[in-house]
Design brief:
Blueprint (H helix, E strand, L loop, with lengths): L10 H10 L8 E2 H7 L5 H9 L12 E2 L14 H13 L4 E2 L2 E2 L10
Parallel strand pairs: 1-2
Antiparallel strand pairs: 3-4
């Protein structure tokens, strides 16, 4: 699943985007798990790379959620229309949230 990235895409962003593409439809992972998978100690850095994702939906950044199993942010926003869009994309894939958190822990993807 090799992807051609624009020259402005940094090597770090490429690592994040390549890892995000491994998350199957109907599954999610956390920013922290993705960070660990690529050898990065900062979930926040992963979030910043995803904020700049210009390759959606091929790089499915909507499948990355917060460590507390809440949806987290989307397109650099933590509420409003952006977050509604993230939840709608996940709902269309069968990922639901109850009381604001991931409803089914079996939908948590773990990189192996």
């Amino acid at each position: 699943m090799t992807m051609i990235y624009a020259a402005a895409t940094t090597p770090f962003q490429r690592r994040v985007y390549d890892a995000a593409q491994k998350i199957p439809r109907g599954m999610v992972t956390t920013y922290a798990r993705l960070a660990r998978h690529i050898g990065c100690g900062s979930a926040r850095a992963v979030g910043q790379a995803l904020r700049r994702n210009r390759y959606a939906p091929r790089v499915p950044c909507h499948r990355i959620i917060s460590a507390d199993l809440r949806p987290g942010g989307f397109s650099g926003q933590t509420g409003g229309a952006a977050l509604r869009r993230k939840r709608a994309l996940l709902r269309a894939e069968g990922v639901l949230f109850r009381a604001g958190r991931l409803a089914d822990a079996r939908q948590m993807f773990d990189f192996r």
